Here is the input.
Amino acid sequence: MKLTKEQFTEDFLRQLQQRFALSVEDSSNYELYMSLGALTRAYYSAEWKSNTEVLKKDKNKQAYYFSIEFLPGKMLKSNLLSLGILETVKSGLKDLSLNLDEIAKAEPDMALGNGGLGRLASCFMDALASSNFPGNGNGIRYNYGLFKQKFVDGYQVELPDSWLKGGNVWEVRKENKAVNVGFSGQVYMVDDGLGNLKPHYENQQILRAIPYDTPMLGFENDVTNVMRLWTVEIPVTEEGNYLTVEKRRAVEDITAVLYPDDSNYEGRLLRLKQEYFFVSAGLQSIHNYFLSLGLPLSQFPNHVAIHINDTHPALCVPELMRLLLDVDGLSWEKAWDITVKTMSYTNHTIMQEALEKWPTQMVYDLLPRLCQIIQEIDRRFVAEKTPQVGPSLVHRTRILQNDHVHMANLAIIGSHSTNGVAKLHSDLLKNVVLHDFYLLYPERFNNKTNGIAIRRWSQLANEQMSQVLDETIGRSWRKNIDDLVLLKAYQDDPAVWEKLATAKRANKERLSQFIMETKGIEVSPAAIFDVQIKRLHAYKRQLMNLLHILKLYIDLKENPAKKMIPRVFIFGAKAAPSYDYAKTIIKCINEVADLINGDKSISGQIKVVFLENYNVSLAELIIPAADVSEQISLATKEASGTSNMKLMLNGAITVATLDGANVEIRDAVGSENIFIFGLDEQEVYGYYKRRDYNAKKIYDEDPIIQKVLNSFIDGTIPNIQREGREIYESLLTYNDEYFVLRDFAAYCSAQEKISQHYADRDVWQKMSLLNIANASQFSADKTVTRYAEDIWQIDPIF
Ligand code: 26W
Here is the structure.
């Protein structure tokens, strides 16, 4: 949009007065933020309206991304960037002696997600709009987002995230689009007098689902899609509807809190309620919209694509069947054909403990009609497939097994596409994890490597680097991300290396200051900033990072004259509140940090910083300052990873196992510009097959590992009597589930190589430059375009 600075300041001052009756001098950052947000909303409202109208008139096919998590972070600056007015607003505010970054801090992070899966959903929302696709989100408006993390005595403590308490400028409540969602009771099929069986419900609990729409703006293209999030309310009925406090609470609980588990399935009734609630509300609203277009139902899949983001929304399959059967009166065959053509599914993890399976009885009690439909889908699947492929394959792939509903099976059988999120991961799905389904439906399997919203992770997060890029290759990369490759032409240009190094240094200084302010730890921006930021999980092996830190520390203690290139090890990670082992690792990292940071004898050559409350905003601060990107999961365990892509884009060099998208990052940058180490997929499966992994033997034969592990139980690290023992036992008594000890030596030598390379500034800068230059292939714009073309069959329309 076009906006002069003068127009902006005038609009802004008016907003401030109208909203809060305040002048700039008397306003808090929060008031300034709310006014700026409201003004931004006003700036995009016309285009939002016209987009909605165009879609309704042209009846274009739209995609709906059903996800139980979205993790957008802050939206003020990204909306201003998309509108093309970020610079104007910045300088307009400056004229008023205000600072946009300070004002933006008043916005709470919208953290309705745990980690990779939720952040990916938000990167996709950005990419869909920016690539002109009509694609919308559908999810839950949790009153409380992911918990806030605090450390008390080195332990993680969780605090509630009441992000809505100050109001949310971006959302719009759509009362007239509310729908009813029914739970429990009994259902009977009754003849409607015309020979059709219709469900008759008794004692059903009816709840109201209210949508809140948040526009998702495309980058400088006037596109606004919608992320629709649902909140539960108690319906007001004509005869009145008095509920006790307890009953009210039970209802409101449905959209009260985000479950903080990112990989551990727990069969909790409330979670199942959440899943059905947003699935049913979303599908009903899509169904209503479709009916309003006046098209025959057979056309449904030509106008609607529904994406099931992991299994949490897999009830989309039986719920769409229910609408087509019970509301529209279609035959089973027609309804099934439409459903399969409409649905597609992404798998995000191979971790067995994350696979959802609900007790059939629980599904029956909560969702009796849906359970009938699931049973019928299962019955027909068995009847159709058994003659084709025999009973044992059918037995392994059917939806109902051992009195449980297997959600992945439901999602695969009820959709036309199943994809993994990186090449390696998709191959594992085909060949190992979902091999039986691959035998049944080979044509349904495909790969869609994850991607990131490049604009947020460069233009917004890293202004310093973006400016160097502008000066070097021109500004076109800001819109055409592929133009980042133009940077390759400068790979041997010391002047460009120098500029990029200066930008990195400025970002490191900014982070150092933050570390000083929040943790009181002094770190030198001249040190290597070595970063591991992701959820805390045993398979991600933060523990291996810690063991390496201890090795370096022990080395320095034993050889006081030794000089190393100083390193700052930076961690950001939340543990699921019920995940004891992950919390143990947090405590150990914190104690090691205290020990090392306080030890004057090593002259500050190592510092360890565990930043609290890792979230999107903190990622935006850490990533631009990183030199080294730790991607060290056990091969086969990390489906893709996406922080690996963000760090690469910001010029960090990756130390990685051949896991997830690391493999494709290596292919993109070349083996000489990444540090690969450790077991590969074949070797990991070799150990599983032979069952001959022996951690104790590795320990017995390696004096360094002995020293490092003994430090956990011999008092070297203070205050971890219980935790140190737990770690020690997990590795030696319980045989080191994620092969940390097996990969440790290779990891240490990769780390040594990193130090050597860093010592040669030119070598390092060139590697860093090539990482930036090759990052565009991981743009979410490309990823969603592949989804649009191969899976959803939607066209760019705006
Ligand atoms: C039932 C509990 C539960 C909740 C969330 C199980 C599993 C999940 C997610 C699927 C976990 C997740 O976030 N997976 C991550 O997805 C990212 C986006 O595709 C990948 O980059 C990560 O590798 C993967 O761990």
User: Anything to note?
Assistant: The first strand starts at residue 62 and ends at 66. Residues 29-58 form the longest helix (30 residues).
